[in-house]
């Protein structure tokens, strides 16, 4: 039944695409191409999750109950729909709290979904500001939360949820996607025409208001004299204006306050002596001209700049390992771009830098459901990836252990998408020999790295204990600075009855997307530079 319901929702979105397009352009500030792509993504979520649950059984896949979905304004259709459909697919009731900046889009979508057959008792729309979201999180009837937004808000939610447990003593599941300080590394073998096109699209599409948008372009110093003048010239060709006009490349920011914050950042770096290139400014408080800022050092990037601003840093080849280490040290891990026509180097870079989604010789935005499951690690999110095989499983109270297949995902010709599972460092706390054995089984299945010191560095925790013991660990971890650390718990009685820890929660999902048609280019380039 849920399978059919989600497919009906997809059909309703497609049938009402023109009205939804109008909402996205007028309320969300989306350009027409961006709005169309977002509607397609929303439809894909419906169908992907519907097909994922076709073989589920009510006896083995037990839903949580009520799940709170808190979605952002920058993808008021796709992320809004993706969260809802993931929770509904798992059999939960949903209280959806959209961003206060885009209430009309949310209201229209929910009306479409109700008319498409999703029961009103299963999907409720709660409009309001952050105080409304906080009240929903605090309510003891909330059994799970899906959130997309800033890391500080996510940490606040985590602290609230970690002060209680669900029935049975289990921690409240929390899926958070929290943005990133996204870099693109281009070496001297990069094809200039390909690189410039991908940089412009990655940095400035949607006015840079994607969590995956390119924030930092790292150019090998030998390449910079060839790329930077062309990039500055190409910037002048971008058209900023009314998003309802097809000629528009870049629309407004979501609000005058958001624009003012970006402008302040630009002026701060201008006063610091950075070379800045901008398009002519457009009248209107919500517009920020697309901007390139050449920075001398990575230390000038202190926080994510959520707008049409591209920072450019040049590096010497010998200094690349240190640069990668410094990017990793920023603590984010959402998207990374790599431009190199030397396959071994691209592979090495992909294996060195921390990111949930890695894009090689292509742009680094616009992840496709099912082909490029999306989500980060460390400060960029908890997992599982949206539009991936694990998402609905995380919103179950009880279900069989799952282990998705690694390897190539479906995609268009000329593109290769590889889905990988990477082991995490996992803190283990057991009370009994049976509990220790259950944790060891999960660790071995995931090839994870066990840690037994609670003060060590780890990215998830397994605990055996009652509600009091689970809460003690959860509140302790929530008080730590840095990333959100999920806690997965089983009681001693549950373990004795045969319950197991799901090894899928002990790995980090990663997708490497390669534009294979861009691997050629200059045939004279036969040696490393």
Tags for this entry?
529 residues, alpha/beta, Aldehyde Dehydrogenase, Chain A, domain 2, 16 helices, disordered C terminus
Description of the molecule:
This protein has a 10-stranded mixed β-sheet with strand order 9-10-11-8-7-12-13-21-16-15, sandwiched between helices. Strands 4-3-2-5-6 form a 5-stranded parallel β-sheet, with helices on both faces. The protein has helices at residues 2-15, 17-26, 32-52, 78-89, 103-115, 130-138, 151-161, 192-204, 224-235, 256-271, 320-329, 343-352, 391-394, 433-446, 467-478, 492-496; strands at residues 62-63, 66-70, 93-97, 123-125, 142-148, 174-177, 183-186, 216-220, 275-278, 291-294, 309-315, 335-339, 357-360, 396-398, 407-409, 415-423, 425-429, 449-451, 460-464, 487-490, 507-515. The relative contact order is 0.12. Helix 4 (78-89) links the parallel strand 2 and strand 3 (93-97). Helix 1 (2-15) runs antiparallel to helix 3, helix 1 packs across helix 5 and helix 8 packs across helix 9 (224-235). It has 16 helices and 21 strands. It has a domain at 183-331: Aldehyde Dehydrogenase, Chain A, domain 2 (3-Layer(aba) Sandwich), CATH 3.40.309.10. It is an alpha/beta fold and 529 residues long.
Structural classification: alpha/beta
Strand order of the largest sheet: 9-10-11-8-7-12-13-21-16-15
Which CATH first-tier class of one domain would you pick? Alpha Beta
The percentage helix is 25-40%
Distance between the termini: 58 Å
User: Over all CA atoms, what is the radius of gyration?
Assistant: 23 Å
Provide the residue-averaged pLDDT: 95
Strand content: 15-25%
CATH fold call of one domain:
Aldehyde Dehydrogenase, Chain A, domain 2
What is the number of strand segments?
21
The major sheet is characterized as: 10 strands, mixed
- Give the full name of the CATH homologous superfamily of one domain: Aldehyde Dehydrogenase, Chain A, domain 2
Mass-distribution shape: globular
Question: Poorly predicted ranges (pLDDT <50, ≥5 residues)?
Answer: 521-529
Number of helices: 16
The name of the CATH architecture of one domain is 3-Layer(aba) Sandwich
């Amino acid at each position: 039944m849920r399978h059919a319901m989600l497919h009906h929702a997809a059909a309703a979105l497609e049938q009402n695409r023109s009205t939804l397009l109008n909402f996205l352009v007028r309320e969300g500030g989306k350009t027409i191409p961006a709005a169309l792509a977002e509607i397609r993504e929303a439809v894909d979520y419906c169908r992907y999750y519907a097909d994922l649950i076709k073989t589920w059984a009510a006896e083995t896949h037990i839903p949580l109950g009520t799940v709170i979905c808190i979605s952002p304004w920058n993808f008021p259709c796709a992320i809004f729909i993706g969260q809802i459909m993931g929770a509904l697919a798992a059999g939960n009731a949903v209280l959806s709290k959209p961003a206060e900046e885009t209430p009309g889009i949310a209201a229209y979508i929910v009306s479409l979904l109700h008319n498409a057959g999703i029961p009103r008792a299963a999907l409720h729309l709660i409009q309001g500001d952050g105080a409304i979201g906080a009240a929903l999180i605090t309510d003891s009837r909330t059994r799970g939360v899906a959130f997309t937004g800033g890391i500080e808000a996510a940490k606040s939610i985590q602290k609230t949820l970690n002060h209680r447990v669900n029935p049975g003593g289990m921690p409240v599941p929390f899926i958070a996607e929290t943005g990133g300080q996204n870099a693109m590394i281009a070496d001297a073998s990069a094809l200039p025409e390909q690189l410039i096109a991908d940089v412009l699209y990655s940095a400035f599409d949607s006015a840079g208001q994607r969590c995956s948008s390119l924030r930092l372009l790292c150019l090998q110093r030998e390449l910079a004299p060839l790329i930077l003048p062309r990039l500055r010239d190409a910037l002048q060709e971008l058209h900023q204006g009314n998003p309802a006009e097809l000629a528009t490349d870049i629309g407004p920011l979501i609000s005058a306050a958001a624009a003012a914050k970006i402008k302040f950042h630009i002026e701060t770096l201008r006063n610091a002596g950075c070379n800045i290139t901008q398009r002519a400014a457009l009248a209107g408080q919500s517009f920020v001209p697309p901007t390139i800022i050449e920075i001398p050092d990575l230390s000038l990037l202190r926080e994510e700049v959520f707008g049409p601003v591209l920072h450019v840093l040049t590096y010497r080849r010998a200094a690349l390992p240190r640069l990668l280490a410094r990017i990793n040290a920023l603590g984010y891990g959402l998207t990374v771009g790599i431009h190199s026509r030397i396959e071994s180097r691209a592979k090495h870079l992909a294996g060195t830098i921390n990111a949930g989604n890695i894009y090689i010789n292509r742009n680094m935005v616009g992840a496709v459901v099912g082909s490029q499951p999306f989500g980060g690690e460390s400060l960029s999110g908890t997992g599982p990836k949206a539009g991936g095989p694990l998402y609905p499983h995380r919103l179950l109270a009880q279900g069989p252990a799952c282990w998705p297949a690694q390897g190539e995902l479906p995609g268009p010709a000329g593109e290769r998408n590889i889905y990988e599972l990477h082991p995490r460092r996992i803190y283990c706390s057991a009370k009994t020999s049976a509990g220790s054995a259950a944790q060891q089984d999960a660790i071995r299945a995931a090839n994870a790295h066990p840690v037994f010191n609670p003060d060590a560095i780890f990215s998830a925790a397994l605990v055996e204990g009652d509600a009091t013991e689970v809460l003690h660990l959860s509140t302790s971890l929530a008080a730590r600075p840095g990333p959100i650390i999920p806690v997965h718990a089983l009681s001693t009685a549950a373990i004795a009855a045969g319950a197991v820890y799901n090894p899928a929660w002990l790995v980090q999902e990663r997708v490497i997307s390669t534009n294979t048609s861009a691997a050629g280019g200059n045939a004279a380039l036969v040696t490393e530079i």
